[in-house]
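Run log, item B.
One chain of 257 residues. Sequence copied directly from the ordering sheet:
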Amino acid sequence: MWRRLAGLLLAFAAATVALWLLSARLSAGQAGRPLRFPSDLEELRELAEALRDYERQHRGAALALFCAAYLYKQSFAIPGSSLLNVLAGALFGPWTGLVLCSALTSVGATFCYLLSGAFGKQFVVYYFPDKVALLQRKVEENRSCLFFFLLFLRLFPMTPNWFLNLSAPILNIPVSQFFFSVLIGLTPYNFICVQTGAILSQITSLDAIFSWDTLLKLLAMAVAALIPGTLIKRYSTKHLKLDEDKHAQLLNGKKSL
């Protein structure tokens, strides 16, 4: 067990150093401006403004740093990927940003799956025994249509995405089904975040927020994001065994009184 922990810490340290070296190189190109993960929308706006000019001149370097930061967060289940989705929309545009974030989400979640399978199984089972047992039971009940069950969990999360990424190897979920369920299932969420970033990057005043153009874009974004969820919801009620009300609170870390 301790060897697995040491291996995980070594992988985390190596990834941290590599990301720091890459960000330090880009910071030098930004006149020494420090680069760090944004923690709120204000820091996100400042970071987007700082990177936008650099991205126009050195697109490859900016893209490499963004990909490295995104994969780092996803691989080690670090919160904050939603702000990076918004940043992608501001930097790369709505459609390039969507393709990029969808691919990075899937690859990063798969790295998390592989790291958990190699180093983290015992820790996940030790610290979350009830959640793992319940999720294992639901997976086995829906093994015949596992891919659609995984899509359902991504679109209507009964458990946080980070926990599903960590527990997937324990549940004997094939890595191919895991990868494509993340790619497809999280696309609506990525779409909303990326489109939001693209819209915010174009807004220069409060009046622009309430313009017809912005409101129509937000409405179209909401409708487009609801379509896949509606289809999966209809399929799930006919073919999946869910018992959502009974188990959702426990999987989300809450127990009913």
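Observations after the first pass:
- The chain has a mean pLDDT of 81.
- Residues 47 and 172 are 40 Å apart (CA to CA).
Flagged for discussion on Thursday.
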